[in-house]
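thread: overnight batch results

M.L. [08:02]
morning all. the overnight job finished for the chain we discussed friday. pasting input first so we're all looking at the same thing
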Amino acid sequence: TYFPVTHKGYWQIAGDEVLIGSQSVGKDIQVVVDSGTSLNAFPKAAAKAINAKLGCTTNFAGECAWKTCPEADTLPELVLAIGGQKFALSQEDYILNVQLHGAGHPDAFWAGVDLRGRVHAPVVHGVRHASPGST
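M.L. [08:03]
and the structure it wrote out:
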């Protein structure tokens, strides 16, 4: 799939919308496709809306964290609509069960970031790299 670059210096492309389930949390977005990170970054307002829909706690970095890992297949898809196509991440795709001190600590693969104070900060779409122990 080809999408034209909209900002020199990044692999930034125009996006249509970000949805959590069927609820829109951002329209007419810019998306930076970044294969150098496994994290997705959303403008803080969008991250907060996503986190609220998922019932997790938003920490100081805008990250979504749960006290216990949600049951399998109980959370909605996170969808990036780009060029009229929908690219969906399932719960399995966007939750990492980090092991800290022998206990699972489920986190989502995104944070809330407002880049350089820009009103229309882009969404950064990282490419998740599988690692041992990740779910």
